[in-house]
Design brief:
Histidine-containing Protein, Chain: A; about 80 residues
């Protein structure tokens, strides 16, 4: 398992379009990919989970990747 951190800079946060781009990128990898917004765990391969999380601009997210291509997934 590898982890990293990212800040949301999009003025609208993770609304439909950026959530879709994020999800489509994550689906390319075999690893499980999760985002943590505080104590909330978000399945990054689900556009509905990402959108339902209501991630706003300025949020600091922890990214967790676990699987055979975890390093590549984290870099993406």
């Amino acid at each position: 398992m590898v982890t990293g951190e990212v800040d949301v800079i999009n003025e609208s946060g993770l609304h439909l379009r950026p959530a879709g781009v994020l999800t489509q990128t994550c689906i390319k990898y075999k690893s499980n990919i999760y985002l943590y917004n505080g104590d909330r765990k978000i399945v990054a391969k689900s556009v509905l989970n990402v959108m339902a999380a209501g991630v706003k601009q300025g949020a600091h997210l922890r990214v967790e990747c676990d699987g055979p291509d975890e390093e590549e997934a984290l870099k993406a």
